[in-house]
Design brief:
- The chain has helices at residues 15-20, 26-29, 51-59, 70-76, 126-134, 139-151, 157-165, 172-181, 189-200, 243-258, 274-290; strands spanning 13-14, 34-38, 41-44, 67-68, 88-93, 104-109, 114-118, 121-124, 205-212, 218-226, 231-235, 262-266.
- The protein has 296 residues and is of the alpha+beta class.
- It folds into 3 domains: 1-49, no CATH class; 51-184, no CATH class; 189-290, VSR Endonuclease (Endonuclease, Chain A).
- The strands form 4 sheets. Strands 9-10-11-12 form a 4-stranded mixed beta sheet.
- Strand 7 and strand 8 form a beta hairpin.
- Helix 4 (70-76) packs across helix 5 (126-134), helix 5 crosses helix 7 and helix 6 crosses helix 9 (189-200).
- The longest helix has 17 residues, at 274-290.
- The radius of gyration is 24 Å and the shape is elongated.
- The chain starts with 12 loop residues before the first strand and ends in a 6-residue tail after the last helix.
- The model is unreliable at 2-7 (pLDDT under 50).
Amino acid sequence: MRISRRPSLPRVFTGRDAVAAGALTEAQLRGPVVQRLVRGVYAPAGLPVTHELRCEAVGLLLPPGGVLTGRSAATASGVPLADRDDPVTVLLPAGGPDTLPRGVDVRLAQDVVASRRWRTTRLAVPERIAFDLCSRAPLPDGVALLDAFARAGGFDPASFRAWVDVRHDPWVRPARRAAELCDPRAESQPESRLRVHLLLAGLDVEPAVTVLDAGGRFIARVDLAVRGARVAVEYDGRWHALREALESDRRRITALRDAGWEVVHVTAGSLRDPGEVVDAVRRAVARQAARGLVLR
């Protein structure tokens, strides 16, 4: 590794290499010239610290066969599922050395397969990335991560279901369940979590449904719809900054109601109590059934 003495330093480098090359002294590693990303790995001071930069740093420390996986690999692929200070998730061959520093989430597997090179390291295959997104997360969160990664083209849900069906890894059962519920039509992670809560409660909901009138003309596109019930479930997580947007949304809701639809609004606050949301949707379905608008 070559490090010039003064003009520039690499984006990430180990302190040991920098000192060995004469680019920095031990004292400078503790001073304002550099910033530490993880134990033993640094970046020039002033370089914005992102999760991707921390992944680059950890890549310098991975033993042979190690790869990025899970939210870290998704983020490195351009799907930002990890925040700056989240642990960097890596996959290592089982039985190999593991001397990685704090801030690294280590997963183990007998067969570690890389898909492609990425900066200082490699990424796991898409199916393994998807597995590590969902296998250890609560089901609504795991499905939300899968939906987001699939929506961005990170993996094919059908291929993942086939892949996970023949696996015998620890945590494979929750991954299979999440794979069954994955739907890349979902447009946000909160909407995905909302859908999973409703499905687990026995409500047959579908994401991103286009509503047409009797003549086939477009009325609206709704976040979730209860099949056969004309009940729309809308996640209101967006601020309507413009008055025009608010008025357009009101016209849209009015058009849905004029077409015989009930609309249940869910906010981030109400989603903290999924049982309350489920009850609200069930009440809406019951009202539609009383009006004779629910298909049997």
